[in-house]
Amino acid sequence: MDTIDAILTRRSVRDWSEKDVPYEMLNRILEAGRHAPSPLNSQPWHFVVIKNHETIKELMTYAHHGTFLSHAKVIIVVTVEKKARVDEWLFEHEQHLYSGACALQNMWLTVWNFGLGGCWVTLDEPKTEKILEIPTDQKVIGCLALGYSKAEHHEEVPRKQLSEMVSYEKYGSKEVKK
Ligand SMILES: Cc1cc2nc3c(=O)[nH]c(=O)nc-3n(C[C@H](O)[C@H](O)[C@H](O)COP(=O)(O)O)c2cc1C
């Protein structure tokens, strides 16, 4: 699957079979996270891999949109150093936090590329910190829940039209200059 195919066909998958995700595959997924871009190449992320069903279930109880989480074979919780080693200006612009999102998206696309299914799940930050003993210098970005999808077909989720989200030269200007 090439990159654009992966981007255009990827869907959130929230139901998984019992089949385990092989270690080698999981490692490749983590490698994709490791290769994400970050401001000044600070690589401020950390990935906590969780396979323990009880831990996943406990995290699920506090995630407002994650009732399905307990079916995941594995979840990868992404955190980012709150005081990432970037300069003051980048820090003020909170660029390091966005690199955690880049890492998560890289992993999500790799999951899809392998024929697995994943979903970004928003975790309750304070509860997650406590359950996973995350140090106070880390910020929880979210988690990628993954496994072998139960469904073969994934419904397309509607997207807004490009015309609703793109402007030219100034925000809101719709005059296309070809
Ligand atoms: C930052 C972020 C947070 C999300 N949090 C949740 C979540 O808590 N629970 C959930 O079911 N899906 C979550 N999603 C997945 C979105 O619901 C999903 O990407 C969106 O509906 C579009 O569907 P698609 O991924 O199938 O294209 C999240 C996605 C992003 C990018």
What does this structure look like?
With 178 residues, the chain is α+β, with helices and mostly antiparallel strands. 30% of the residues are buried. Helix 2 (23-34) runs antiparallel to helix 5. It starts with a helix and ends in a 13-residue tail after the last helix. It has helices spanning 3-9, 23-34, 53-62, 88-92, 95-113, 125-132, 162-165, and strands spanning 45-50, 74-81, 117-121, 138-147. The chain is built from seven helices and four strands. The mean pLDDT is 95. The structure holds flavin mononucleotide (FMN).
Low-confidence stretches: none
Count the domains: 1
What hetero molecules are in the model? flavin mononucleotide
Q: Which whole number gives the mean pLDDT?
A: 95
Largest sheet: 4 strands, antiparallel
Q: Using only CA atoms, what is the Rg?
A: 18 Å
The SS-based structural class is alpha+beta
So what's the CATH class? Answer: Alpha Beta
CATH superfamily: NADH Oxidase
The fraction of residues assigned to DSSP E strands is 15-25%
Binned, the helix content reads 25-40%
The rough form would be described as globular
Q: How many individual β-strands? A: 4
SSE order in H/E notation?
A: HHEHEHHEHEH
For the largest sheet, list the strands in their spatial order.
1-2-4-3
- Remind me, CATH topology? NADH Oxidase
- How many helices does DSSP assign? 7
Q: Report the end-to-end length measured between terminal Cα atoms.
A: 31 Å
CATH architecture: 3-Layer(aba) Sandwich
